[in-house]
Amino acid sequence: MQGRQESNRAEGEFLVVSNSSVIIALARICRLDILKKLFGKIIVPEAVWREIAVEGKPGHEKIVRADFIHVEKVGNRRLVTLLKEFVDSGEAEAIVLALERNADLLLVDDHYARDLAKKLGLQVMGTLGVIALAKYRGLIPKSKPIIDKLVESGFWISRKLLEEFLRELSEL
Known about the structure:
It contains 10 helices and 5 strands. By secondary structure, the protein is mostly helical.
């Protein structure tokens, strides 16, 4: 398995665990740099690594070479099995890993996985939240060109949500 495994959390480190969706979406448009600049390091469970590092998937090469993505093993397999009744295996492992590591943030787009993670006390953010945060921190001048590329690459967002998002960022 590729990727680096690390289990010790440095003092003061902002710990971010991710599911596959945000990483894949940004890799497709060659903007993984946003994640690296915002968070420095992202931890993914093994199931997510298998999803994002599969040869032939869009952005695969960029993901495999991303030195800021680290792979960790989930400890509580029983909880993963339970959560898989509600979400897919990558989301289940990401939620459990975030709980085990006491993560500051879980990156996930799926509505059901986000709701479940919130009910378990986790802070969540999706692809749009990452883009908004990047704009607020001055890493990107505008979010609309990035959103347009995401939509062109197959990222689905409702027209209503897109308009609300752009209005919130004063881009509409």
